[in-house]
Amino acid sequence: MSADQTTATTTATTTARPSGAEPSSSPRRLLEKLSPVSGARLGEFPVAGEDEVRAAVARARAAFPGWRDTPLAVRAEALGRVKQVLAEQGEHYARKISEDTGKPTFEATMTEIGAVPVLLDYILRRAPVLLRRRKVSTPIILPGKSGFIEYFPRGVIGIISPWNFPFQLAVVPVLSALIGGNTVVLKQSEITPIVAGVVEDLFRRIGLPAGVVEIVHGDGSTGAALTRADVDMLFFTGSVATGRKVMAAAAQRPIPVELELGGKDAMIVCADANLERAAEAAVWGGLVNCGQACVSVERIFVVDAIHDHFVEKVREKVSQVTVGGPDEQADMGPLTSSAQLGIVERHVKSAVAAGAKVVFGGERLQRPGQFFAPTLLTGITPEMEIFREETFGPVLPVVRVRDEEEAVRLANASEFGLAGSVWTQDVAKGLRLASRLECGQVCINDVIQSVGHPALPFGGVRSSGIGRYHGDEGILAFMNTRGIMVDRGKLNSEPLWYPYAGKVAHGFELLRGITTRSVGSLVKGFLGLRKKMTRQK
Which family does it belong to (predicted)? Predict the structure, then answer.
């Protein structure tokens, strides 16, 4: 928790408890939420303790058998009601998201609310195909047998979601877990407690059985309690530092864990790129959501031949970006987290001190709230903090490179590997460069929007995380896999079973058939073993 973003107090209260919990008059901590736009107090929100988290997990555990055994079609029908609720409540939800985060209402509508039905449609369409039992080919060494693969839910999933896209990044993992028959305990960020209430309202309105989705409110201590609770899997989206703690907690049991962590995403601008499009994309890709996206453009590698021309185009476009709160209908809002504002200021100052040039912006805006000017920097080098660490703010750092080869090498010189983009009018070249980037997703002549492609898996390598969601992988991530082999059961024994006496020579013949793919040797070896098996009856 960011201490200067939300503050904790202790008070006696009998309100704001999880659904189904008993009233309590014991003191509990409350978090004070301040507006990132004005600094005004927006309210106080409860912090669930260890006992409340355990109780929520117990309710999800009790609900699991019933939800698991509910036919997939019935589960899909229930989850499909999300779209109806969003159609009715979407505008209200978007405005609450903007109030909590400070992001423009258009962004809240499209990147938060609008993304959910697109991804849900894919989940509902693909789950019946993916989750049915399927037959697999069986090798000749196992004659008379058939192999099958099927999936079954892991159980109770603990999901810890972040503050930067607090609606979408909570709702989509929950839906992905629920479709397969899991139940969920969700803990959202203390930095966006208003959105946590919006998500709770959404799942209340679709009318799921009690305990299928439990939501616990609180700070880092609540999330830590969830990692220690009796869950069967942890799904975490957030910082690398906290991701390591989640992974360590999961290792104690051990249970599966999926980590969706940070990025330092590279944008490679080739000499033959459509510079107008690339410049527009750089500005939007680096400033959307005030740069608070794991897939934000955080390093722009521009080949020397077009560097100056490209930088000037970006400068012109950055200078036209309007900044303000949701009521001002601006392009870019404030940083949601005041702690993140401090990181952005530090990265820019240290880069300038190390020789970077501020082409535009570079400082906090002199107005109430957590606003930082859209910023364009040139002269960035690999030794700088802003090159190596995730900034997560409205800063566009440009790196001049000799050619695409140097761009790829420097792009891969990072502990992160989440996403990237390549800009060229030669798509074949773009594909070649994309295939050399060590990251989980790459766009060619586009940026960020690949995250919204429902069939594409999303996730990173190295410090950007473990696992994938979205796409087919995002459904199967919450499932256990079971292999089944079937024999017709007509024989009383098997050639490979006891006793072994007299079978060695036939075994060698069978081995030759396996290693040389000789059908004759396989048949000869098997027939010999079968004869021995028959004689020994």
Answer: Belongs to the aldehyde dehydrogenase family.
Geometric angle at alpha carbon 391, from 386 and 395, rounded to 5°: 80
Sheet holding 213-216, edge to edge: 213-216, 183-187, 156-160, 233-237, 257-260, 465-466
pLDDT of the residue at 522: 87
Would you state the pLDDT for residue 132?
97
| Active site residue ranges | 260
Contacts of 44 (CB under 8 A, 6+ apart): 9, 30, 31, 32, 33
Determine the Cα–Cα distance for residues 444 and 267; give it in Å rounded to an integer: 10
CA distances from 216 to 225, 273, 357, 455 (A): 10, 48, 45, 30
Q: CA 165, CA 108: separation in Å to the nearest integer?
A: 8
**Nearest alpha carbon to residue 168 among 44, 61, 292, 57:** 292
In the predicted model, residues of the chain with pLDDT beneath 50 are 1-25, 537
Dump the DSSP string for 129-147: HHSS-EEE---TTSTTEEE
- Determine which helix (DSSP H) or strand (DSSP E) holds 53, and give its type and residue range: helix 50-69
CA torsion sign for 199, 37, 374, 332 is positive
Q: Are 258 and 477 in contact (CB under 8 A)?
A: yes
- What is the radius of gyration, based on Cα positions, of the chain? 27
Model pLDDT, residue 526: 85
pLDDT of res. 529? 86
Distance, in Å, from the CA atom of 224 to the CA atom of 245, rounded to the nearest integer, reads 9
Q: Which residues of 306-336 are buried (b: 16+ CB within 10 A; e: fewer)?
A: bbeebbebbbebbeebebbbbeeebbbbbbb
